[in-house]
Design brief:
mainly alpha
Length: 141
């Protein structure tokens, strides 16, 4: 194992020696200018990972808030079952009262419908009688 490590270090040292003289200052300047140009031309690309992390953390926070809000009624029902039962009984009384009122309204509407039908029938008969009388008077004249 030590021999492999020594061989690796020798190869790395040799590569560094071979590489350094070839890397001229003009190449360094080119690399720097390229890096500066990328930073100026793509600021959004550089900020995208930060925005993505922010978005993910906000989504996690939203999910935790939704879970908390959804658990409130359940926790309330667990802690105060007698209150929930009395509230439900109150709602049931209101529904029953409204159903009774609705039944009364339906009965009233049916009664008014029958009265309307009766009055319409009387009106039709009267109009027919008036037309018959006018026809009879027209023959006499």
């Amino acid at each position: 194992m030590a021999a492999i490590r020594e061989h690796y270090e020798n190869v790395a040292s040799k590569n560094r020696k071979d590489w350094r003289p070839g890397f001229t200052p003009s190449q360094r300047n080119s690399t720097r200018s390229l890096s500066a140009a990328l930073n100026r031309s793509n600021p959004l690309v550089l900020r995208a990972p930060r925005f993505k992390r922010s978005l993910q953390s906000l989504e996690i926070e939203l999910q935790s808030q939704i879970s908390m809000v959804e658990s409130i009624p359940r926790r309330h029902a667990e802690r105060h079952p007698d209150q929930v039962c009395s509230m439900l009984a109150g709602y049931q009384r209101q529904v029953s009262s409204l159903e009774e009122q609705l039944g009364d309204l339906r009965a009233g509407l049916n009664s008014q419908k029958e009265q309307y039908q009766t009055l319409l029938s009387i009106k039709t008969r009267l109009e027919m009688e008036i037309a018959r009388i006018q026809k009879a008077d027209g023959r006499r004249a």
